[in-house]
Design brief:
heterodimer; A: 291 residues; mainly alpha; four-stranded parallel sheet; 47% helix; B: 286 residues; alpha/beta; six-stranded mixed sheet; 9 helices; 25% strand
């Protein structure tokens, strides 16, 4: 097997070659388990809370959390809305049995519907989807009190594309999977023994009936990941990608999503008026004096 | 006769000097019990690495009483440890001290401050301006703090000045998880250690830390590479470890007899080239 170092020089951007996305799952698993264990200890916390939707991202997150902290220190939250599928519930329960963590079911239908019933204006389905995502996160944060941390389940593809709800599914205390593209995350999932049915099913946020990520985005994760990998990880310009045969429209679209949604990935802007301002020139590490 | 050294592959707490001092004492005691003549800690071992604005809060002069416990502990074992040095003119430096016989005998200030990618040293610290060797029981030694080692000229200058050991205390973040090899950073570092050791015929003592700071993992993998290019000792990746190994001056001598690259090195040509390019005067003295 060629070493990563020897191979680096021959990686070429090629729309037909997804191999540069392949990762060493054993190494990644070790790094992420240590990350969860170490950063939770630094925060002087003990437990992890994971929103378990039945999808692959939260499946990987909760499996890593049980390995890092022991299943007794992990709570999975399945938070269905009335349109959530029975398959999602089955998958969440299957993961709970397989990895041994406690799964709590907390439906969000009543509170979401109550809120929108009281509105008089016309409500777009995006608003309902965002409300659901934030409702779920508020429950995760509630269940994290007093000694738990909410684990993020947004992968690198979603974060870069901004395909998520700010302060909803994108919110967390720490995120172990945010540097893995969707296709890489599936590799890790299989390595962790997550059932194929969960790994291979079409990704969906289930924010409305029949929704799938790839239909809504208009492209596949496989295509997006390869473009993002060359653009972000290997710093190729869009023009170079197009020269190498990547679809010009898709490259432009993805680049624009990354740019337009950058605000979702950073802390809110603070207006600077004083001599020293949080986030601008008051720059302390988050692990300040942490063990 | 060979000399035993110990590498403390530890996980310092960020900005908590008092706690780190206690942590150092434990590793020093273990190294002493293992019969080591020197224990080496990673870069900024007394303060943690990604300090940002904490750098000014934890800085102290090299002779500050805060560091007295380290000096005190060095009466029967040499100690190489990292701290933030505040110079007499109040500049902050990433520094590595060497304490021996109860006293500070050498300080190296990191020269190359990486300010790219995940690094921002140059924002918070001033650069050192020299590569000076010093001599202790193990031999003539030069210190290359992390990025210093990535610059080929650093170990070259030390070797030219007679060093048989390069100590490389580091805080190297692990990154690069492509399939089909080791961690990307580990591969680069090992290549570098082995190359310098073999071609400069000296010991490279690579001392990396472990643990996390703000989500970034330090990968460990400390190692001692001998002048014949063999890995004399290597610590595991990501876990704490007290790594023991031997420094053998005889091996340096044997390798230099077999492979006299340093003897034949033409420093005058190197200097003339550089001096010429920089427009500096250069007079050859035959």
């Amino acid at each position: 097997m060629t070493s990563a170092l020897a191979r680096t020089g021959v990686i070429r951007p090629d729309p037909k070659d997804p191999s540069p996305l392949r990762i060493d799952e054993v190494l990644v698993r070790k790094m992420l388990v240590l990350f969860i264990r170490d950063e939770i200890a630094k925060a002087r916390l003990r437990r992890a809370v994971v929103g378990v939707s039945g999808g692959v991202d939260s499946a990987v997150t909760v499996a890593l959390a049980t390995e890092a902290l022991g299943p007794d220190n992990v709570i999975g939250l399945f938070t269905p809305y009335r349109i959530s599928s029975g398959e999602s519930r089955n998958h969440a329960q299957q993961l709970s049995r397989q990895f041994g963590f406690t799964l709590e079911e907390v439906p969000i239908t009543e509170q979401v519907d109550a809120y929108f019933h009281a509105r008089t204006e016309k409500v777009d389905k995006i608003r309902i989807g965002n409300k659901m995502a934030r409702e779920r996160k508020s429950i995760e944060y509630d269940r994290s009190w007093p000694d738990g941390i909410v684990l993020g389940t947004s992968n690198k593809t979603e974060l870069l594309l901004g395909y998520g709800t700010q302060f909803g599914d994108m919110a967390s205390g720490i995120n172990p999977v945010g540097d893995l593209y969707k296709t890489q995350l599936r590799e890790v999932a299989l390595h962790l023994g997550i059932p194929e049915a969960i790994v291979r099913k079409p990704p969906t946020a289930e924010l409305w009936e029949g929704q799938t990520d790839e239909d809504e985005l208009g492209f596949t994760y496989a295509d997006a990941d390869l473009i993002l990998y060359h653009m972000v990880d290997r710093r190729l310009r869009p023009a170079e990608l197009i020269e190498h045969g990547f679809d010009a429209q898709l490259v432009a679209r993805i680049r624009e999503l990354v740019r337009r949604n950058h605000y979702k990935r950073v802390m809110p802007l603070i207006a600077k008026v004083s001599l020293r301002t949080i986030g601008h020139d008051f720059l302390y590490p988050r692990d300040w004096e942490a063990d | 006769m060979s000399i035993r050294i110990a590498i403390a592959q530890c996980a310092p707490a960020l900005g908590a000097v008092k706690r780190n001092l206690d942590m150092h004492q434990k590793w020093i005691a273990r190294a002493r019990a293992a019969g080591a003549r020197l224990v080496i800690f990673p870069e900024l071992s007394l303060t943690g690495y990604y300090l940002k604005d904490l750098a000014a809060d934890v800085a102290c002069a090299a002779d500050d009483p805060q560091l007295a416990p380290i000096a005190e502990a060095s009466r029967d074992i040499d100690i190489s440890a990292g701290f933030v040095e505040r110079s007499a003119d109040a500049k902050l430096h990433i520094a590595q001290g060497h304490w021996s016989g109860g006293k500070l005998v050498h300080v190296h200030r990191k020269v190359y401050l990486p300010t790219y990618g995940i690094f921002d040293d140059g924002r918070y610290f001033g650069p050192g301006d020299r590569f000076e060797t010093y001599t202790w029981a193990g031999g003539t030694t030069g210190v290359a703090i992390c990025e210093d080692l990535w610059h080929v000229s650093t170990p070259y200058l030390y070797a030219a000045a007679g060093a048989t050991i390069v100590l490389a205390p580091s805080a190297s973040p692990g990154r690069g998880v492509a399939e089909g090899g080791d961690l990307g950073t580990a591969e680069s570092c090992r290549l570098m250690d082995r190359f310098y050791a073999s071609y400069l015929t000296l010991y490279v003592v690579y001392v990396n830390r472990v643990g996390h700071e703000d989500g970034i993992a330090f990968w460990g993998g400390s190692e001692i590479v001998a002048p014949d290019g063999t890995v004399a000792a290597r610590a595991p990746e990501f876990d704490e470890d007290l790594l023991l190994g031997e420094i053998d001056p005889e091996l340096v001598a044997r390798e230099r007899a077999r492979n006299p690259l340093l003897r034949d090195e033409r420093e005058d040509i190197v200097l003339r080239n550089i001096a010429g390019r920089l427009g500096l005067p250069f007079d050859r003295r035959d």
